[in-house]
Design brief:
The protein is an alpha+beta fold and 91 residues long. The chain has one domain. Helix content is 40%, strand content 19%. The chain is built from 3 helices and 5 strands; from the N terminus they run βββββααα. A 3-stranded antiparallel beta sheet has the order 2-1-5. The protein has a two-stranded antiparallel ribbon with strand order 3-4. It is globular.
Length: 91
């Protein structure tokens, strides 16, 4: 099971999300920013869904999402900037 941020681009296995205990049931949150997480069936399906964004004009989205795993970025633009600067640093 995959947890993914609703307020950020963080995602990872649900065991890496922060668990928020509540009387109505446990909820999950991004371990970095604390934003609420939703659950997705599995990694393969999650990445397949990310690939669909490329069909509507978000070139490279699946590659970005695969790279961002375990990292918290508020916006797609912030994530792309970090991804590109890391790639440039490697040469």
């Amino acid at each position: 099971m995959i947890a993914y941020g609703t307020l950020c681009l963080w995602w990872d296995h649900v065991s890496r999300a922060t668990v928020l205990r509540a009387p109505t049931g446990d909820r999950f949150a991004c371990p970095r920013c604390g934003g609420e997480c939703r659950l997705y069936v599995n990694e393969e399906s999650y990445l397949k869904m990310a690939s669909r964004f490329e069909l509507i004009g978000f070139a490279g989205h699946r590659e970005l999402i695969a790279w961002v795993r375990g990292r918290c970025y508020r916006t797609r633009a912030d994530a792309w900037a970090a991804y590109r600067s890391r790639a440039l640093a490697r040469g």
